[in-house]
Design brief:
The structure is a single chain. By secondary structure, the protein is an alpha/beta fold. It is built from 10 helices and 18 strands. It has helices at about 40-45, 85-90, 130-135, 135-155, 170-180, 195-205, 230-240, 260-265, 280-290, 310-315, and strands at about 1-10, 10-15, 25-35, 55, 60-65, 75, 80, 100, 115-120, 120-125, 160-165, 185-190, 205-210, 220-225, 240-250, 270-275, 300-305, 325-329. Strands 3, 5, 6, 9, 10, 17 and 18 form a 7-stranded mixed beta sheet that branches. A 6-stranded parallel beta sheet has the order 13-12-11-14-15-16, sandwiched between helices. Helix 6 links the parallel strand 12 (about 185-190) and strand 13 (about 205-210). Helix 4 crosses helix 9.
């Protein structure tokens, strides 16, 4: 089979790879569409010691079952492979399973024509939604999970608050669209990339601004979602959150700097770390995407898998205007 392989730092090679081994309980999937995630970019830059080249990356995937219980069925892949037996799994928090694995991390991912994955990790795709749009399920579920955590921590309904989202990659943008779908009247997005800002402005009704030129309103937001996760954005999150507000930390750009714990304490701000999603989050997100609740999704850019290397390079150099690049086999 053909695959896009992470072969060295800042090197993606489209080449022949052995077909995956299908183990008991697995299905063999023909990949149709797969998105490039920020974590794939971290690996590409050599910033993730868990992802060691040569490795097939990619986990935001949609395909068709070739071998398994339902041949011919289009499916979204749940990339988190969990034990199903621990306390976290049995309590519905599979994303916190201590034995979890992820395709495209220790095992081969979805930047390939074929992948083998457990049958229980397959979610049927509804009729009427393209594979390219269904590939947004994974990043969308990350956003939905973050919003749900914010709702639980809030003293008032989330629809009554003002929200700031930092970062207009696919997770940040989908978080903003989910907030709007939930009735949040004011949702602002901070994004430094001018090309990405232009795309968001022309394809959505989201308000987006350059935080370098215009700093977010100090103590102005009930909810702040940090979809970048850097030292600077953590500082911005704390400065921008109202007393009694909620910060949800989604991104994992770096682990540098200090958190102003005194400000969090004296202003009674809730700071929540969030990791991925549950199977229920994935299903709910796919349903939202299929229903049109999150808009037209015209901000997605589509490219062939064979051209994935150039997409990685452009994303790294800030030359890509799309919040999400989806590769098709």
């Amino acid at each position: 089979m053909k695959a896009l392989v992470y072969t060295a730092n800042q090197e993606m090679t489209f080449r022949d790879e052995p077909a995956p081994q299908v183990e008991k309980g697995d299905a063999l999937i023909k990949i149709e569409s797969v998105g490039i995630c920020g974590s794939d970019m971290h690996a590409y830059l050599g910033h993730d010691e868990r992802r060691v080249p040569p490795l097939i990356l990619g986990h935001e995937a949609v395909g068709t079952v070739l071998e398994g219980r339902n041949p011919g069925q289009r499916v979204v892949l749940n990339p988190l492979i969990t034990c199903g037996e621990c306390h976290e799994c049995l309590s519905g928090r599979q994303n916190l399973c201590s034995s979890r694995d992820l395709i495209g991390m220790y095992r081969a991912g979805a930047f390939a024509q074929l992948i083998a994955i457990p049958e229980r990790n397959l979610i049927p795709v509804p009729d009427g939604i393209s594979s390219e749009k269904a590939a947004l399920t994974e990043p969308g579920a990350t956003g939905l999970h973050a919003v749900l955590l914010a709702e639980k921590a809030s003293a008032r309904p989330i629809s009554e608050g003002r929200a700031l989202v930092i970062g207009a990659g696919s997770v940040g943008l989908l978080t903003a669209l989910i907030l709007k779908d939930k009735g949040v009247g004011e949702v602002r997005i901070a994004e430094t990339n001018p090309l990405r800002r232009q795309t968001v402005e022309s394809t959505t009704d989201c308000e987006i601004f350059d935080p370098i030129k215009t700093a977010p309103e100090e103590a102005g937001y009930d909810f702040v979602f940090d979809a970048v996760g850097s030292s600077i954005t953590r500082q911005t999150s704390i400065a921008s959150t109202r007393s009694g507000g909620v910060i949800v930390h989604i991104g994992l750009m770096d682990n540098k700097g200090e958190i102003d714990v005194r400000a969090l304490t004296l202003r009674e701000i809730t700071f929540i770390g969030t990791y991925t999603y549950t199977p229920v989050d994935l299903q709910a997100t796919l349903d939202k995407l299929a229903s049109g609740a999150l808009g037209t999704l015209e901000w997605v850019e589509h490219r062939p898998l064979a051209e994935g290397g150039s997409a990685f390079s452009e994303l790294n150099q800030g030359q890509c205007a799309a919040p999400k690049v989806v590769l098709s086999t």
